[in-house]
Inverse folding.
């Protein structure tokens, strides 16, 4: 069973930065699409960014691509989300998710239901 453990959340002032980490069990990143989602109180969970573990191609939500960067380490055991110029509206619980793919698959998971493995979430609070 895939285990994802997020860390790095916390309280930061407007304009500050945080880097979230998602440690994945086994070596699933190489054969998965990894994603960061976030969910603010009273709102639906939304996709922030994804990275295809095999070749590193990325996707970002349009409103976040200038401030957030998703990456993975060379060993492909950890996925990161670098968040810069944080705003109060970035306050949310941030979740790491994984969708394991068959070899050679070009499937592009997009929605919450497309991802089968989730971490417990890490709280990010941006004060004004």
């Amino acid at each position: 069973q895939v285990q994802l453990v997020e860390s790095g959340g916390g309280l930061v002032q407007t304009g500050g930065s945080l880097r979230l980490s998602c440690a994945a069990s086994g070596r699933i990143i190489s054969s998965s699409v990894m994603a960061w989602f976030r969910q603010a109180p009273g709102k639906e969970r939304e996709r922030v960014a994804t990275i295809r573990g095999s070749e590193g191609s990325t996707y970002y939500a349009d409103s976040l691509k200038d401030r957030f960067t998703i990456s993975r380490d060379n060993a492909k055991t950890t996925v990161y989300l670098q968040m810069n110029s944080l705003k109060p509206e970035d306050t949310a619980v941030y979740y790491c998710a994984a969708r394991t793919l068959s070899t050679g698959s070009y499937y592009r998971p997009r929605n919450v239901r497309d991802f089968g493995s989730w971490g417990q979430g890490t709280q990010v609070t941006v004060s004004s």
Remarks:
- Residues 97 and 118 are 4 Å apart (CA to CA).
- The chain has no helices and eleven strands.
- The mean pLDDT is 94.
- The first strand starts at residue 4 and ends at 7.
